[in-house]
Design a protein that fits this description.
three-stranded antiparallel beta sheet, AGE family epimerase/isomerase, mainly alpha, isomerase, 6hp_glycosidase-like_sf, 410 residues, AGE/CE, 6-hairpin_glycosidase_sf
Length: 410
Amino acid sequence: MPASEIQTAWAQRLQRELAQNVLPWWQASIFDAEGRVLGGRANDGAVLDAPRTAVLGTRLLWTFTTAQRRLGRNPALDLAAERALAWVRGTLTDPVHGGVFWSVDGDGQPVADHKQTYAQAFAIYALMAQHAADCAAQGLPLAAVTPAAQDALRLFDLLDTHARDGQAGGYMEACTRDWQPLPDATLSADEPPAARSMNTLLHVLEAFTELLRCHRQPLVATRLRELVEIFLDRLWLPGQRCFGLFFSIDWRPMTTQVSWGHDIEAAWLLRRACEVLADDDLSRRVDALVPQVADAVLQGGVADDGSVLGAGLFDGRVTDARRHWWCQAEAMVGFWDAWQLTGDPRFQRAAWRVWQHIDKHHVDPVGGDWLKTLDEQLHPVDSIPRAGPWECPYHHVRACVEMMERLAHA
């Protein structure tokens, strides 16, 4: 088929995947009868009684409100968005000190009440999606001040006041419930104690990008610009052709790990940040870096079948050959974005091959949604749930929405 027909068919397939497989599963499967968020579901559909993380709750809100705006509203989607907003605003939000708890139990009582910077960033991101949906529904400009935007701006102020490192730059990983520094905090037991992580800074950058898109406050622009510069000057390791993952307080890399999924995700999110900042000089620097990132991921982190591997080391060794759904989702967008920037057909082909892998191996048309992790033989890893503390719809819903828009204008 001509390229235009392939792209049209691809976009239509992505829309069907969202509307008929992914969103219906999450709408029907992640809430209990009272509308509370469940701890998760195993691959066989069994309910998991795990802590309800802010990661899951905020990403649900982002997903449903984004779907309302991009795909059109319907009663089931509206109910899911309403439940997710109530969970974020009423259950996850600390009524005393502000910010969102890291996790709560099924009754909404805090399990871990500290203020992880990563979680606050996703709350901002989700609330700005709610704000955009509210503006679209009410015919308001994005610069309007909605309750969701007010909540997001309050979270920005809390992060900037308590979690920002005014001397060395960047943001600390976490604070206590009352916003005192919490050293050696980590996102999971698999991570080393570190003063800063690329993953946290990436999602703060992502959140500030959407906040600035709607509310062009000078301080938000300043902080977003600082973050882009940190990625360019501190996190990118040119000798290793990757972003470092964990850093000391004085920005020394603490590990030799490479995460190809994070690298390709950072590449397109940095471009998005510069687009919103409208900073030509910074855009030129980022545009020079993006092809290097995409090429490094393509050369070192992509399997023979076009799928993206989990992780490796600076010396090129693969340490995690599993295929994680979120790496595939981000690579599809990141490679396509690199092709849109450079015209290099290798990147266009890489995006298409990732989608072919996703459609063949991750999409589950019978059980619903996507299988989250596959082993080296591309069999589902049953210990990784369909929905859980980290297993959320955000990565693949966003990838589908992004690609639908980009394919329509390619």
